[in-house]
Amino acid sequence: MKSYEVNFDGLVGPTHNYGGLSYGNVASQSNSQQSSNPKEAALQGLAKMKALMEMGFQQGVLAPQERPDVAALRRLGFSGTDAQVIERAAKEAMPLLVASCSASSMWVANAATVSPSADTADGRVHFTAANLNCKYHRSIEHPTTSRVLGAMFANQQHFAHHAALPAVAQFGDEGAANHTRFCREYGEAGVEFFVFGRSAFDNRFPAPQKYPARQTLEASQAVVRLHGLREEGVVYAQQNPNVIDQGVFHNDVIAVGNGEVLFYHEDAFLETDQMLAELQSKLAKVGGNFQSVCVPRSAVTVDDAVRSYLFNSQLLSRPDGSMLLIVPQECQANERVWAYLQSLTSSGGLIREVKVFDLKQSMQNGGGPACLRLRVALNETELAAVNPGVIMTPPLYGSLTAWVEKHYRDRLSETDLADPQLLLECRTALDELTQILKLGAVYPFQIN
User: Fold this and answer.
1) CA-to-CA distance for 346 and 286, rounded, in angstroms?
2) Which of 110, 86, 100 is nearest to 19 (CA)?
3) How many other β-carbons are positioned within 10 Å of the β-carbon of residue 75?
């Protein structure tokens, strides 16, 4: 039976703005308060989805969230009509209104952790929504994320869904941004690689001093238990706290893996040699041949990696066994990064080609190609059980681009977030989107 790695890309929401909400994310903070272009952002993301579909990769789409999140503002004490809630928040606590308008759910690498059926005890694909409790504006996402994933992967014979972990610091979970799976074939048993920034209960693990470590070891261990993963099919690694303090807020900013290959920066991890040996040993036991590509700091500094998002790229397997790397334009603009990529692809090694995409709107808020996609390994039967409305096709691409052109603004500033009309525009757009994607009622305004 054939198997695939399907990339489900986040559709950028109508309230895409530069609120500078993510402390530790250099791009997010440095572009704070600039005017954004939601329409351009959504079209850039759709263009990447279309391109990958046309290259022959399985591609899906994951819907955005309802924003502003009026219910979240009500929980914080704002009352009255929806328009009055927004007006009061704008006058009394603008940062809370900005947080309630965040379109950060576009970065669906943080939506959940996914384990394919070949790895799990019950032979189903398991999803655990990420609690994202390190940042308030992201911590409000998981209830809708769970409903959307449930509508996409509804067949209980093939798919199992778990609620987010307890929303406390000890179980900080950032989803697939800190999770990678290695395997020989997507339908075969593999090794799941969990990267954590700190331990909540064991002080033997060093912690960063400047920026928060968002993923805990204990959260990763809990996901392993929930998904029914075998001990021999799991490897844990600690992210280097020094690179977290340089703006590497998730592992997918400093490393990316796919198939049997890990592409990583020399300074990405602690105990790197031990980790690589464990990955090689465990993958070999299930018939795989683990290989790694280390980018030396002498060629690309951590600062270069953070500014260019070299590692926040998509590493894709081609039928001939070679790898394709999808990178943002910022990699081409960085002289050292581009020189490294040119030497990498000309060396005849594992990564043979680089394709560049314009994702400026997402990049300026701190998310690149890898942030925009959630990977789900599926066999043919499971793929057939996925809601067909969310699988990218030429007609769906046409419908979604027309939908964006119809509903999205081409300029959004912080003051625009206080406009009650924006909420109405967002709800109208999302109500139509659920019909296009055949999701049913997944948003609070559709349910309440």
Assistant:
1) 31
2) 100
3) 10
d(CA 345, CA 74): 53
Token match 């793929």: residue? 383
Query: Does residue 248 surpass a pLDDT of 70?
Result: yes
Strand blocks (E) in 69-163:
112-115, 125-129, 159-162
How do the domains of the chain map onto residue ranges?
3-67+102-202+210-240+360-447
Q: Say how many residues make up the chain.
A: 448
> How are the residues of the chain apportioned to helix, strand and coil, as percentages rounded to the nearest 5?
40, 20, 40
pTM of the complete model? 0.95
Helix (H) or strand (E) holding 385: helix 380-385
**Bond preceding residue 68 cis, omega within 30 of 0:** yes
- pLDDT at residue 111, as a whole number: 97
User: 65: closest CA among 101, 21, 25?
Assistant: 101
CATH number corresponding to 3-67+102-202+210-240+360-447? 3.75.10.20
* Predicted pLDDT at 364: 85
Helices 82-92 and 420-436 pack at an angle, to 10 degrees, of: 130
Q: What does the alpha-carbon distance between residue 245 and residue 49 come to, in Å, rounded to a whole number? A: 32
Residue 319: the pLDDT is 84
Contact of 263 with 295, CB cutoff 8 Å? yes
Cα separation, 202 vs 236, in Å, equals 15
3-state secondary structure of 392: coil
Instruction: With residue 137 as reference, give the H or E element that holds it.
Output: helix 136-139
Percent of all residues in the chain with a pLDDT value above 70, rounded to a whole number: 97
Which residue has 């209830």 as its token pair?
143
d(CA 361, CA 314): 18
Give which of 330, 283, 284, 294 is closest to 310, Cα–Cα: 330
Alpha helices in 9-75 (DSSP H): 26-30, 38-54, 70-75
Q: Is 194 exposed, middle or buried, given 0-12, 13-18 or 19+ CB atoms closer than 10 A?
A: buried
Active site residues: 174, 250, 371
